[in-house]
Amino acid sequence: VLPQQAGYARSHLRSAANSNFLNILMASDQCVVSDDASVLVTADLYQRPPRGCPIVVDPYGVFLASWPGHEPPSLSMGRVPIAVSNQGPPPPSFVNEWAAWLARADWVLQLSQISSYIPWTPQLRTWFSHDFHLATSRSGLWIYHHVNWTVPPVDR
Fold first, then answer.
1. What is the pLDDT of residues 26-80, one digit of tens each?
2. How many whole angstroms separate alpha carbon 60 and alpha carbon 118?
3. CA distances (Å), 67 to each of 62, 91, 98, in order?
4. Which residue among 1, 104, 128, 132 has its CA within the 20 to 30 Å range from the CA of 119?
5. Does residue 96 contact residue 119 with C-beta atoms inside 8 Å?
6. DSSP letter, residue 67
7. 156 vs 68, 91, 92, 121, 143, CA distance in Å?
8. Please, what is the end-to-end C-alpha distance for the chain in angstroms?
9. How many other β-carbons are positioned within 10 Å of the β-carbon of residue 66?
10. How many CB atoms lie within 10 A of CB 150?
11. Residue 82 has pLDDT above 50, yes or no
12. Which residues of 81-98 are buried (b: 16+ CB within 10 A; e: fewer)?
């Protein structure tokens, strides 16, 4: 599956690859977390992640394993997940796992403005909006920079 996904990711990176922003990001030793590992593999950001940086290889699989019987919500035309009212709240352990990964990230790359693979509770979304600023969005790739380093909420 990785070669197919890497080809898909390459299309997202094509227009952004020449920007100074991605060149600086790819040359740095900063922690990058993404909702699609193939984007990081294609950009060579998996070579040597900094110590303590989470390596999220399969966010879709994590979603399915962490919240059995549920699938990530579909994306609307605006690339924002459509809430599924009958799903109920995600398991706290799933929310806390993503909160911990995001808390360690210097950068977050998503294939949509709000990734449908991340269990966005209102508290997690508020924290993310406060701690991360959108650096750029090009060709369906949303890149957020971690600017405020507050402790993420704990879901109970």
1. 666 788 899 988 877 776 666 667 888 998 889 999 999 999 988 888 754 444 4
2. 9
3. 8, 7, 13
4. 1
5. no
6. S
7. 18, 9, 5, 12, 29
8. 35
9. 16
10. 9
11. no
12. beeeeeeeebeeebbbbb
Structure tokens at 75: 């994306």
Helix (H) or strand (E) holding 123: helix 122-131
pLDDT tens digits for range 135-152: 988 767 899 999 999 999
Contact 59, 37 (CB under 8 A): yes
Q: What is the pLDDT of residue 78?
A: 43
98 within 8 A of 118, measured Cβ to Cβ: yes
- pTM of this prediction? 0.79
105 and 45 Cβ atoms separated by less than 8 Å: no
Task: Using alpha carbons, select from 97, 110, 106, 38 the residue that is nearest to residue 63.
Answer: 97
| pLDDT, average across residues 103-114 | 91
Contact 117, 93 (CB under 8 A): no
User: Measured on CA atoms in the order 9, 10, 11, 15, is the torsion positive or negative?
Assistant: positive
Please choose, from the candidates 19, 18, 28, 22, the residue with its C-alpha nearest in 3D space to the C-alpha of residue 49.
28
